Amino acid sequence: MTNTPLSVRNYFKLDLLLAHSHIILRQVFKNRYRLFTNGQLWNDSLKCGKKYLANVIGKSKKFNLTTVQKTLVRVGDSNEWDLTTLTSLLLNTDRPKTLNTTQIQQLDNEDKMLIELRAIRNTLAHHASKTIDNNEFHQLWSKLVAILVVFGGSDEELNELKSDSMFEPSKQPINESNVSEVLRLNSLGSQAHKEQNFSDAITLFTKAVNITDVSNHQRAIVYSNMSASRLALHEKQVSASNMLADDDPTDQRYRALHDAKQARMLSSTSWQGHFRVGKAYAALNDHEKAINSFERALALDPNSIKIQEAINDSQQVLCRQSRHEHLDPRGQPITMQEHLNEMQQKYGHDPQQIRMGHELLGKIDPSAADVIMGHKYEHGDIDIKQNHEQAARYFAKAANQGNAEGMYNLARLTDRGLGVNKDSKFATTLLEKAAEQSADHPKFKGLTNVGVAESEHSLGLRYAEGVFVQKNLSTAAQWYQRAVDHGSAEASNNLAILYLNGTGVEKDLQKANQLFELSARRGDPKAMLNLAWGLLEINDLEMAKIWFDRACEAGNLYAQAKRNDFESALRQKQQIIENHPSSALQAMEEATAFSDLITAIQFENSLSNDSSVYDLNVLNEHAKRGSQTAEKMYNALRHFHNALHLITKSESLTIQQENIFIHEYAQCCRIEHTVAEIPNKNIERKIERIIDRVFQRCCNDSNLINSQLDEDVRVCYVVLHVGSPKINLRFLNSCKQKYPKVVFFLEFSGAMNVMLGQFEAAVSDANAGLKIDPNYYELLFMKATVFVVLEKELDEIINAYQTFLTDAPRDHCKVPESYYSMACRYVECSDDDDLIEETYKQGEEAEKIQLPCFLPYKSDNKMALKAAFEDECSPDLIPVLVPDRRSRLTDLHRIDIFKRHRQWSASMSSNKNAPIGITQKPRVKQPTSKSLIGLKSISLREINPTKDHVYNGYVLSVTIIDEALSWKPSIHLVIEDENYDCDHMVVYDFQDTQGKHLINEVFTIGTKMSIINPYLRIGANDGKPFIRVDDFSSIIFQHESERVVNMCRCCGQSNASHVCSRCKRARYCTKECQIMDWKLYEHKLICIDRSYREKSPKFDEPVAQKFDDQQEDTTQANQLRLPLIPIDAAQNDTGAQTSNLFPLAPAYKEKNVPLGSSVWMASNSLHLLMKRNNHLCLLDRNLDVVKKTPWSSNENVIDICWCDTLDQFFVLGDEDSFVSLHRSTMARKTLPVDPNIKLLCCTCSNSKLYVSNRKGGSNIFIYSLLPNIVLVKQWNSPATCTIEERIEYMRYSNEKLALIINNISHNMRLELRCESTLEKLWSLNLGNYMSPFYGYHICPLPADEWLVIAQTNSRLLHIAPDGTIKASIVYEPRCCSAALFGPDVLAISTDYRLFLHKL
């Protein structure tokens, strides 16, 4: 072990010292036991253990022991108890009331030491790297020795453990013959183990360990092997009897744990012992301790794949347990027949028809049939016995044919080693391949490609939990978002948790709530419970109760177990509301609204223990790099963790423990109170009670009136009640009188005065504090901000900020805000643009060194400055939306409804081979009524979106808010109720000839109607809910006078005066509504020139003989799709192609391009990137430089492309540099591409990066974008081009690659290739238009059209989708390149200028 790094040796020395503490604490326990039981002795017997478990632990709620710990306590042998068990027993055992004052004080002092000892143990146990630097080592060592000396340890003996002797071979008397015998017995035992004669192996190993005069290391090896044999024997016994009991002390697993601990004790610096302890804990289902032991083993053998795989396995199980996956009813194993019976019960499917559909499917889509067979073998069926190996074979067969569902299911089995070898890396690869596919089914248009969203969600879980991959919450959020977009309920719930906690994404409580609701509506029982707690928190008691009941009804076992807790909380809320007048209730709702959203949720699906945005390890790392802010926050967080750990491990605390808690919490608040994020309301109430009790003691005890404890508890009270400024200010006045030199109270008094608008009083508090401590920079910042509000003179404000900036650490979170505030003051009071820009840039520079917990940085001043710089405000703009409408317009479910409705409309309008379906009869019949009398009103939110059900005796009042779609035999609507909730509605039972009349005259936008006995139908094919009407008599239309006339297509306002200039049908009340409808609701899908309707009388007839909607396709419909006679709408649809580009409109904006700039550029809708002099510059739509980063003036840029997925530009230089450039931060990163490839051009899709090299017979290299940029495919000659040819330029658009190819004869051609197969779609000879010796460029246009630029003669060619030239012009001055700058602007770069043209 001489090569063991010093930091690792430090860790294991501390670990050895903690192990030695077991001996000392065992004696402390026995002494206390004797004291508490009137002289009875603890003799480590089974009798003692059983009695203690029953009478002490069983009758107290303080203990929080695992099953393994309880079992070992029951055995009674204190030698088997670990430090966690010992400290729990010592701290939580109730004391007898007969103790005298001296005994109580002694026990209180010991408990204080025990709490500190446990905190050190937890710090070491959860130390991910298992490395301790010298400074931390000496601090922890001194603390531990001091504690153990208090408990009777010898200072001299303990410090002897500090030497490196544990890493050196022990000097023991060795008997060589005994050694030979041990080696022989160990060899025989190992052979018996291989032959699966585990009992014989254990017998041989037992004989070996009883032989004396052999080295500890050799005995440790034998104990380790014996532990492995015991675990193998246990597995064999379980598989034979199918019995599993975790609390049986005679279980081989407990004996294996004992043997493993013996091995670890005999050779604590050998990885085998730690590894075996981990395996024993994993077998006992205590995976947290297993991971701790595996990590120790890995620290001793960092390159061991076996240890890393064990860590991954335990982490995977632990994450599943934390998600309560075992309680999820959807994960319970059921046979195929049971599944079909469940579908029949829920949706009315005939199992026999589905089985017939399976047979048909084999003829149409063999890979899908293989997936079905895989499911049958995985779960078992009527005539098929469960067989995971066969299931894996069928899934693999489907996966090899490119089936995403096959890939996903094979990854599932591979992850768990079911039927195949366990291989996490291969499973990850399968998931990534499945996630690369389109979310739409490749063969059946309109259907979901099952396996894509599931794989995306699984990848999100991997990155969120750090299992099999490096933990990265930002990447997890990206995968979750993709899965959410593709319909995943589970991903919506998990992404909501990230937004709730602000981990991996910017904290957004409103979005978290929307995602919880979206997930719940999609049927996730976990999200239903989370949503219920969240609604309860914001006092929406009715919906909270409804969603909680839905969670229980959906089979959420955790919700069922927590029903009493929920109903108790609900009753408390109801009592508060009943006992408060409306004004008080309104204040209560405002206080709790969304700022505290769902903090009381007992999340059953917490993906990380790091619920806070403040990560202790991250802060520690930044502190080591010299960050004063991180060091300060790290110290505060350590105190807060100590305090929190104290109150979460015990139901009640002793007086001494309460005093310790107050001190730790107060220390945190003094240093940095913002890190003290209390996890939930229950803990907050517990803290309040402790503070009240301690404060009463301080008031009643004359010895405590002016004590440190009194000051501490006042600090805690102030921080806990920061949300009640009036009450807090009165309390702070008394604190300032009692402790006039304590700056903390002056700081918070100033803060309360600011909250109450008493700004002069705040300045007075700040000045008083600064007299005591002139460098107290928190007060300096407060004073500066209050000066702004008081409109002090500019010099006074600037001086105040400058004083703060002088004293505050450079990475203090208020440093950027100070610069932005000063810049705003300059805007108001100065015309010095250079000074404003310089100060603003100082703020941006300060942002770059902010800690991760403060990023992305938020500043209203910064937003105001950006608006001023970019001149975003215009007097000609029509009014914007009022704020109270925005929340519902951005609701994720609403967006999903509109997008699916319009995507289906676009698909049906453009698909010449529209699918035919077969009507699935409704599961139940919807009763009718001719009158609304006696019916109860119901809203969409009260209708359960997860249950197929008719709501008899109810009436649903709605408004139609989007264009009706008609195709035989149903009319599709989007409806909205009085709460602004919306959903799909489908109407049946009308004659074919009525379709046109009904959608044009009856079911029009703005029409209001009532649905009697509404039927919530769950779609037979995709499981999507919608309101179904089978009888027209169930609809009662309101009077025409109630109709919303000229309804805004986005927000629903009446009398919208603005009309879409393209389709002439959609109306909008504001420009913002039009933009939102175009972007969020994808109006662009249906925005076409409607003149075609007037030209073609058949257009309004059903565009396809579809006998049902997307939801209502039966399984049989999936098997057979028949094309109809196509309706060639595209010929008359001017929206299907780009109108003629030429002649170009005159440039409306232009800008000089400095010498030395590059002609190449790339853009998104907001910014344009190009090289100017020695910088890469980001230009806004006014062509002003908003950001820039250095780029060598000697290196030309030869290509740039934009990646929307990563929000990055890819830049290729002629010196073989290839970098990514983040748009918002301009952070630059070299891409993992071999520089020897000699790249020439690059382009990007939403999922891949394509690059080509300069050689003859060019290659095309394809890289995945997520989760990392990795080479996934390579096309070579002749698939790309012949060996005499070279790809000179390349651009991607709409699953196609456009290539400019130059051959040895210098004949140029443009070829369009299929991206996935590289199949040539068409080829166009460019020889007459461009020279091979000059530059050339391709710019994709909408509707599969292209713009080709020839630098030789400055010619622009407009290429049609079929490869023909629509038109060409010569551009003056000489054109070099072009890029679309948003949907309607073409940017053209010339030798010296940049022009923008409106299209």
Automatic annotation (TrEMBL):
<comment type="similarity">
    <text>Belongs to the sel-1 family.</text>
</comment>
<dbReference type="InterPro" id="IPR041249">
    <property type="entry name" value="HEPN_DZIP3"/>
</dbReference>
<dbReference type="InterPro" id="IPR019734">
    <property type="entry name" value="TPR_rpt"/>
</dbReference>
<protein>
    <recommendedName>
        <fullName>MYND-type domain-containing protein</fullName>
    </recommendedName>
</protein>
<dbReference type="InterPro" id="IPR013105">
    <property type="entry name" value="TPR_2"/>
</dbReference>
<keyword id="KW-0862">Zinc</keyword>
<dbReference type="Pfam" id="PF01753">
    <property type="entry name" value="zf-MYND"/>
</dbReference>
<keyword id="KW-0802">TPR repeat</keyword>
<dbReference type="GO" id="GO:0008270">
    <property type="term" value="F:zinc ion binding"/>
</dbReference>
<dbReference type="InterPro" id="IPR006597">
    <property type="entry name" value="Sel1-like"/>
</dbReference>
<dbReference type="Pfam" id="PF18738">
    <property type="entry name" value="HEPN_DZIP3"/>
</dbReference>
<dbReference type="InterPro" id="IPR050767">
    <property type="entry name" value="Sel1_AlgK"/>
</dbReference>
<dbReference type="Pfam" id="PF07719">
    <property type="entry name" value="TPR_2"/>
</dbReference>
<dbReference type="InterPro" id="IPR002893">
    <property type="entry name" value="Znf_MYND"/>
</dbReference>
<keyword id="KW-0863">Zinc-finger</keyword>
<keyword id="KW-0479">Metal-binding</keyword>
<dbReference type="Pfam" id="PF08238">
    <property type="entry name" value="Sel1"/>
</dbReference>
<dbReference type="InterPro" id="IPR011990">
    <property type="entry name" value="TPR-like_helical_dom_sf"/>
</dbReference>
<keyword id="KW-0677">Repeat</keyword>
<feature type="domain" description="MYND-type">
    <location>
        <begin position="1048"/>
        <end position="1087"/>
    </location>
</feature>
<feature type="repeat" description="TPR">
    <location>
        <begin position="271"/>
        <end position="304"/>
    </location>
</feature>
